[in-house]
Amino acid sequence: MYDEIPSLLYVAGALITVLSWTLFAFSKTIRPEGRRAFILCLSVIWILFFASSTLALVPYPLFEAYSGFMDPDVLDFYDQPVIRLLPAVTCGVNLCVSAGCSMVLVGKRSKR
């Protein structure tokens, strides 16, 4: 059971990220007409970034805590360099997407 917790948390964070950015990108009702709506949109963008990044980074400490209870095959899988870099890459992509969405939102707001 312990060997599934880190991967489940990471997959949950990745799914929340993909789903939220997809819904945010295709939502035609989000238009920053007022100051409140503008601040709300920026807040939602960065709350999504922090929530998804937290879910992406939490599995690493859990993996370290549960490593004594895991099978050797699972330990070998999690010790691969690509698997260890995946949360950091995910957070980097989230940061780029959040910054890009924020700049687009600010650009639309400043054109008015």
Automatic annotation (TrEMBL):
<keyword id="KW-0812">Transmembrane</keyword>
<keyword id="KW-0472">Membrane</keyword>
<keyword id="KW-1133">Transmembrane helix</keyword>
<feature type="transmembrane region" description="Helical">
    <location>
        <begin position="38"/>
        <end position="62"/>
    </location>
</feature>
<feature type="transmembrane region" description="Helical">
    <location>
        <begin position="82"/>
        <end position="106"/>
    </location>
</feature>
<protein>
    <submittedName>
        <fullName>Uncharacterized protein</fullName>
    </submittedName>
</protein>
<feature type="transmembrane region" description="Helical">
    <location>
        <begin position="6"/>
        <end position="26"/>
    </location>
</feature>
